[in-house]
Write a structure and sequence with these properties.
7 strands, three-stranded antiparallel sheet, Double Stranded RNA Binding Domain, hpI Integrase, Chain A
Length: about 425
Amino acid sequence: MLNSKDFEKRVADAKKAGKRTEIVDGGGLYLDVTATGVTTWRYRYRVNGRREKITIGAYPKIGLAAARGHRAIIAGKAATAKNVKGAASPAQERQQEKMAERAAKHAGTIAELGARYLSHIRKQGSKAQSIGWHITAYITPALGSIRTPDLTTGDVRRLCDKIKTKAPSSAREVLGTINRMMKHAVSDGLVSFNPAAGISPALYATKDARERSLSVDELRAFLLGCDGAGVSRLVSAALRLIVLTMARKNEIVKAPWTEFGLDSALWELPAERTKNKKPHMVPLSSQAVAILQTIRPARDDEEPLTNFSTWVFPGLAGKPLCDSTLNEALKTNKWFGLQRFTIHDLRRTASTILHEQGWNTDVIEKALNHTMPGVRGVYNRAEYLDKRREMLQAWADYLDALKTGAKVVPIGKGKAA
């Protein structure tokens, strides 16, 4: 180790030399003197056979004694990294600190994070509208000015508690959006902690059980609501087709015209577009065909409902309509004055009413494109296409009668297929 007098003389000589010089103090500590005379303390060490180097700081701001003190601290951390599995080495720890500093500098506010997260979600094409509503209506007004790294669990709780007083379900949904936003920020290295992660959604509302089925009166109110001024003609058509065909929401909104044979009154879904990954044929009632003919523009239409698109329900930028658009339509129209329900509940409603009317269970299950287990599932490879066509036409006629207020109840065909 050098004494102070010898050290200062060597520093002066190194600066005069005009070339890079290392003045070694021992134990891995040295002063790096550049050709231009810049002097910086550095420390070399090994961790698990790997050589690392770390910068301590500038000389003479950090003198010889102080540099030796820093070396002792860093050497202790290096020893810990050798003996403790998963412990960061001094250089790794320093790198993590720098990354955290850069992330904090660029993390921005919650409003900026919300905008970035919404853009990310839109690129994925999922739930953009509901998440956008949470961000613009609740999160940004209340939390937007807070820097992202400074957001606390208390901030999130206070917002959700306030929303809960009027809309418990919305409080739960907003909490979920904040949680996903902050997870996104963590994955991007903008923050190291998600303040929403430890808050239970059950504090605000229980998740709706998937067992809602609309009554006959509610179904009539829904059908009338589809024709209301608050629902666009295209969304109305999609909702009515879901009820008529008993199809899933994404099967309807992402359907290309090539799947439909209007002359044969048959909709053929390929395996890649069904939940069970099996091809599925849907007989189309005359009412369903009429809706599709209304949607498909003719060359002589003066005011076509849609453009000449690949998709039955075209959205923006040449893509199909986003399935969340239907959810937003229900929400905007306050579920037509009914207790809250989901698009999926329409399938359950159809199944419930058709069973009550005595239609064959296997035919109904095939119409829903459900996969049945065991021997029964093997037997039900039969398409029951004619029986399903008969049932779906009777179902469409029943819906027409229900909408007009006529008391017409079709008679089912018994339980035997």
